[in-house]
Amino acid sequence: ILIIGGGIAGPVAAYWLAKAGHRATVIERASSLLKSGQGIDIEGPAREIIDRMGLLEQMKARATGEGGFAFTDDDGKPVAAIAGGLTQEIEIMRGDLCEVLCRAVDACDLVEFRYGTKVVELTQTPTHVAVTFDNGEHATFDAVIGADGLRSKTRDLAFDEKTKANAFRARDHYCAYFSLPREDGDSPNSRWQNATGGRIILIRPHNQDVSSAYLSVMEKSDKLAAMCRADKASQKKAIAEEFEGVGGLGPRAVKGMLESDNFYYDSLSQIKLEKWSQDRVALIGDAAYAPSAVTGQGVILSVLGAYVIAGELSENPQDPVAAFEAYEARIRTFVDTQQTISLNGNSPRLANPRSEWGIWALRTSFKMVAWSGIWK
C-alpha cells in the first residue's frame, strides 16, 4: 500500500497497517521531517489511539506547558488572563508530534519511508494502481492512501472533476506559523493581541529555547490568497506588509518571522467532499475533510481516519474498494459534526474584529469571562 504524505495521518495509517501485517510505503514531498506548524491538542479519540501506539508518555514529555491565556492591549501588555490555555488536554507542537510518530513508524519492519518524493501520475486498473514518481520510477500498489493535506495532489490526480468541484472551501482567513527565540514573559501564558483589519498576533510557549508565534489576517484578499502558492520569501514579505505599523507584540513577531527557518503559511480553509475514495485510491485527514484550524479538530480527525482506514483494510485485504467504502461509512457522521464551525460559521469573525470598537468589545468580554471564572 502506498501512503502519500508523511505528516500526521500518513504515519499513523502506516503504523497500524504494519501491525496488521501489511507492507506500506510512505512518501513525503519534503526533503526531511516536517517541523513547522501550530500547537495542537491531543484529545478524545486521538489521545486513545496514540496511547494504544504506546506513545502517550512521549507526547506528554514534549508538551508545551502552556499554563494560561492572556489578551493584551495595543502595547502588548496583558489586560486579562485565564488558566488552562487554549487547549484542553495535551498541548504539543505539530513538528514534535510528527517526529514521535515517524520514529514509531521507522521501527516497523514492514514500512518504508521515503523523503523528497512526489507522485506525478496515478492510473487505476481493476487489480492495482500504477504510480509514476517524479524521478521517473514506476511502481504498482494494491491501493493508495492520500494523506497529503489541504492542497492534496492525490485528490487532484485521482478524483473526477465532479467530486472535486467545490471541495475547497476558502474562508478568507490566512495565517503564518513560525518559531522565534524565547523571551521572558513568553511563559506560562500565551498572549493574544488584536489589531484593526482582522489581524491577530499570538505568541505561545513551546520549550526552553523557542516560542511559537502566529500572525493571522481575516479579510477577503486576492493578494493573500495568491500567497498560498508562493515561495516562503514572498509569503513572509506579504505578511510583514500586513502588520506594518502594528505596535505591542507586532515588531518582535514580524522580525522573528522574517528570520525564522521554521515557517509555514496557508489559508484556514475546509475540505468537503461528496466521497473520500475513488476506487482503489482513498483520502484521509485534511486531504479528505480538513476542518479548519479554528475548529481545533484537525488532529482528532486525522488520527481517527488513519486508524479506521487501516482497520478496514485489514478486515478486507483483498478488496480495498470495499474497505474504503466501509471506512467512510464508519466515521462520516462524526467527521461532518466535527467540521461544524460554531455560531453558524461566524465565530472566527468575532475573534478577528476589524474595527477599534470591535477590539474594545472583544477585550471587554474577555475581561468579564476572566473575572467570572467560568472558563475552566
From TrEMBL:
Record flagged with keyword Kinase: no
One Pfam family, short name: FAD_binding_3
Domain of life (superkingdom): Eukaryota
GO molecular function: FAD binding; monooxygenase activity
Cited Gene3D superfamilies: D-Amino Acid Oxidase, subunit A, domain 2 (3.30.9.10), FAD/NAD(P)-binding domain (3.50.50.60)
UniProt keyword list: FAD, Flavoprotein, Monooxygenase, Oxidoreductase
Domain FAD-binding: residue ranges: 2-316
Keyword flag Transmembrane: no
Name of the protein described by the UniProt record: Monooxygenase FAD-binding protein
Organism annotation: Sphaerulina musiva (strain SO2202)
